[in-house]
Amino acid sequence: MDVPERPSREAIERLAFVDHGRDSLLLTGEGPLAGLSFAVKDLIDVAGYRSAWGNPDRLRDAPPAIATAPSVLVPLMAGARMAGKTATDELACGMFGMNPHFGIPINPAAPDRVPGGSSSGSASAVAAGLVDFALGSDTGGSIRAPASFCGLYGLRTTFGRVSVAGVMPMAPSFDTVGWLTRNIAMMKRVSACYFGPIGPAAAPRLMVARDAFDIPEHGIGAALLPIAKSLGASTEITLYEEGVEHWLETFRPLQLHDLYATLGAFATEPGRRLSQAVAERFALASTVKAEDVAKAIPNREALTDRLVALLGDDGIIVLPTVHDLPPRRDAPVTAQIAFREKTLALTAVASLTRLPQLAIPATTFEGCPVGLSLIGGPRSEKRLIAFADTLGDLTRKAAA
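Given the sequence above, the corresponding structure tokens read:
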């Protein structure tokens, strides 16, 4: 769908929210989030609403959910109003927001480019100011990539810390629930409802992953590196001691095998309607070798042990969020695949090691938002947010 140079609020809303989930929901008008609105990615259950998972057959066949996911109950019981359910890449298999069945949500920060996925509608709705925050899921970057593309704060939580009950399982050993906000104050306010009060924290031990800044293209890494070094006293580290390809060779078979074991029966049902990109992804997933999965499992544990030890109780690793600017809305499927593989070199770090990661807006490059990310040890979300709270608006500082 073509998007005007300056899309209207109505145009953004039409593509950000799904037609089958536009009814709002308010359980209580009291609590720490009273007066705020939020959106929910359309693969997270809300009682009485259908979850289509970005697929037309699922929309046709799925009954309304009988229970609300615990991750949604938290903001509802804190007084926030759910404004509706938002678009997602089909079966969460995407990093761009391109869904040929339901359209591409608009990136308000760069309307000629994609908003990122698979939490695409959630990012679009928050960036446009349609809601105060939005829930999404993150397996291999599905919150972090949209956050970078749309100039938002996005939190991938520690694996297992926030319940994924009532959430479409995509790759169960990677899946997490998280949220997107426009500013750190809102990130802090929402996160406190999940983790408890977030107060000042001692200065962290900052580590700039120097080799990670060699991954972005078109000069983006060079633009981000001085910003990363300006965050505070830091040391430079080599993140990919085993080599980038070792990380990817560990991630790929595990994530693809999880995907096929979990959703393969749905995707391969005779007559199933799947987009080209998603059909190709499941075809690839079906070819994963058992020996590659078996080899990757202990490799994952070794990578996790190294990073957890490196981070300790006070460490934060700083790295770019994604490797490039958002693709154009008309980018072909081949370009999507190539982009995904390169950005996975960055997003797979927290995904493999099950660690929390906070994506923060850092600057603009050729008119598009570009983000940095903070990775902490297990259950360090409060420390990441408290530190980000001390940084102020990095994008505004970079423009000064």
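The longest strand covers residues 357-365. Try to locate this feature in the token string yourself.
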